[in-house]
Structure formats: C-alpha cells, structure tokens
Please model this.
Amino acid sequence: MSGPIRKVERRSMRLGENGTDYGRIADFQGGMTRVNPHILHDYGRNIYRKGRPIGYAFDVRICGYRGLPVNQIRSLAFEVDGVEIPDDCKTILYDNREYAWEDVGADKFDNSYFWKYGDYLRVFLKVDGGIPQGIHRVKFGLALRDHYNSTAFCDKPVTIV
Model:
C-alpha cells in the first residue's frame, strides 16, 4: 500500500441528524417534504387557567404510515396568521402531562410514550391572552427522527373555538 493514510470521516446514520435543519416553517416548503392537510385537525381551542386564556392548542397527527415514540419528533413548526411561533412557546400535552418542547428528544422525556398512527397529539402554544375565536390561517410543519426522515407540511384554515 503506497501513499499517506487518509482519514475517513463518517457521518452519523442515526435519527436523521445529518438532514435539513427544520427550524422555521419555510424549511418545510419544497424539497422532500410532503404536503398533507390531514396532519392538522380542522379545529383548535384556547386553553384557560383560572378563567383567563393562557394560550391555544392544536391537535396534530403523525405524518408517516406507522407510529413512533413521541421522543422521535425532530421538529414542530407553526405559523399562525403569518406569525411564526417560537420553540419556547411550544408544549406537548401527552398522557395528562405537559412537556416543554426542549424536553422532547432529551432524557427528560420517557421514550415509552408512543404516538400511534391515526392518533392526535395535542400541542399547546403558550401565548398570553390566547387567540380570538374564529378562522385563522395555520401553517404546520412536522419532521420525525426515523429511518425514513419523514417530513410533512400543512397550510389550511383552522377554526379556533
């Protein structure tokens, strides 16, 4: 064998870490993302605490053909009436418990919580005062950490009740 030894750099093959960074709703438009209007329920609702609206929630479906642990959610992006919702406002409501978005994918979240195909997962957006009742334009993007690196995008009118 002649010549210098070459260093081979390997990239991770696990959990879609090398793919696109889906941080904003614009990242979901185009490319390998599938448009799927069924991943976002047609209705959302304000969430109240002590009679005061503290935010609102949407119910979302998984975009693949099978279920995955909730911890396999790579990205959730929302844009409501043209305003992007920051990650620090997002909370997952699952099994009667609340999980801050930064805990999903970390060891603070139980890997056994399974998001079944066809089931809705409630995402709570902490926005003081909630949102007025009525129809709002919602764009939603979902990216999963699975071996297919599933991503989906939805843009539709949603009624807040």
Summary: The chain has one domain: 25-160. Residues 10-16 have pLDDT under 50 and may be disordered.
